[in-house]
Amino acid sequence: MKKAIAKQEESEYNEILQQAVAVINETRIKVARQLNIGENAVYWKIGQMLHERKLESKHGNAVVRRLSADLKEHFPEMGVSPRNLWNMKKYYERFCQSLSKVQQAVALLPWGHILQLMQSIGDNDESILFYATECATKGWSRNLLVNAVKMQMYKHAVLNGPANNFERTLSKEQISFANETFRSSYNLGFLNVNGPLEELELEKKLVEKVKQFLLELGKGFAFIGNQYELEFNGKTRKVDMLFFNRHLKSLVAIDLKIGEFRPEYVGKMNYYLSLLDRLERAPDENGSIGVILCATKDSVEVELSLDGIEKPIGVADYQLLLPKEKLQKVLTDEVKAFESKKKKT
Fold first, then answer.
1. What is the DSSP letter of 195?
2. What is the secondary structure of 20-33 as a DSSP string?
3. Is 0.90 surpassed by the pTM of this model?
4. Which residue, 229, 240, 339, is CA-closest to 291?
5. 3-state secondary structure of 151
6. Is beta strand 221-232 parallel, antiparallel or unpaired with respect to 185-187?
7. For the chain, is the Cβ count within 10 Å smaller at the N or the C terminus?
8. Measured between alpha carbons, how far is 180 from 141 in angstroms, rounded to an integer?
9. CA-CA distance, 83 to 70, in Å (whole number)?
10. Domains, the chain, ranges and CATH?
11. Cβ distance 258 to 295 under 8 Å?
12. pLDDT of 116-135, one tens digit each?
């Protein structure tokens, strides 16, 4: 009995710890966003001024060089090199005609991320909005953004619509946020997997790098545990990974599969969610949500499997991306290119 109580207390403490970590990380992200917004507002206005003065590289180089030198005297710590001033002009011209939601999403990002998006995406505002939102909600570094663009994550997300039954099983207040939170595909490239692996190995790697996995999952997630035991009617069941989402106020169960999606996985997840709602859910919490994470899925098969299921369940696939050596080369080349550009500015 004492052992069971100690186990429960340890589980409760781990939940408190993970939620506290999530709160701190989320606050830090909010502070960084505010700093980005202020800096980018300055860059936007300078870019607008250069645009309205109709300065072009042919006849405006001398003016911009002089402006850069004088601004450095007043603000020696600001990035006001001639190259960066021209980038401010490009920034304004690129987004001044964009929808406000695109402008607002981009304004949250660090300046280096904005330059990367302008360089690699071009004029596709929908793609820009997707990557900007991913960066803002998941705290992507510039290298992760570079990698995501190279792997065409936006294209993959567009081709794979939401594979869930949230419209039927969640409250109106939860549906929109759940569809924004849970995606149809996840990028697990941070695991650096080079070959075949078993489900328990995949789970172990995700637990070892749970911080990165939390970033990939998105806002408000706290990790509770893996192989989480649910005891009922003399039998024990184990949930592969259990999380709590503060915004949805719901437990989130993830079932890991190394192969393709199978219809029987839905019934198993439905049972897990019933146990969680009966044994673990607090009185002030919403119903538990399940995510079946598979290597591949067929959208039609998923839709048929979820038909008639009353518990909220989503099915997502995952990408392991490049082998470790290739992934490292991509990132190393990008870092070198970025450092080379910094030295020139």
1. S
2. HHHHHHHHHHHHHH
3. no
4. 240
5. coil
6. unpaired
7. N
8. 21
9. 15
10. 29-151 (no CATH), 159-321 (3.40.1350.10)
11. yes
12. 999 999 889 999 998 998 88
User: What totals of helices (H) and strands (E) does the chain contain, helices first?
Assistant: 15, 6
Residue 273 near residue 288 (C-beta atoms within 8 A): yes
- Partner residues linked to 222 by β-bridges: 244
Contact between 189 and 321 (Cβ < 8 Å): yes
Q: Distance (Å, rounded) from C-alpha 144 to C-alpha 200?
A: 26
Of 284, 264, 287, give the one whose Cα is nearest residue 276.
Answer: 287
Give the burial string for 133-155 (b: 16+ CB within 10 Å, else e): bbbbbbbbebebbbbbbebebbe
DSSP class per residue in 244-284: EETTTTEEEEEEE-SSB--THHHHHHHHHHHHHHHHT--TT
Encoded tokens for 40: 């980018």
Contact 124, 155 (CB under 8 A): no
Which amino acid, one-letter code, is at 322?
Answer: L
Structure tokens at 165: 């039954």
Residue 191 DSSP code:
G
Distance (Å, whole) CA 39 – CA 282: 43
**Residue pLDDT, tens place only, 192-221:** 665 566 777 777 878 777 777 877 787 788
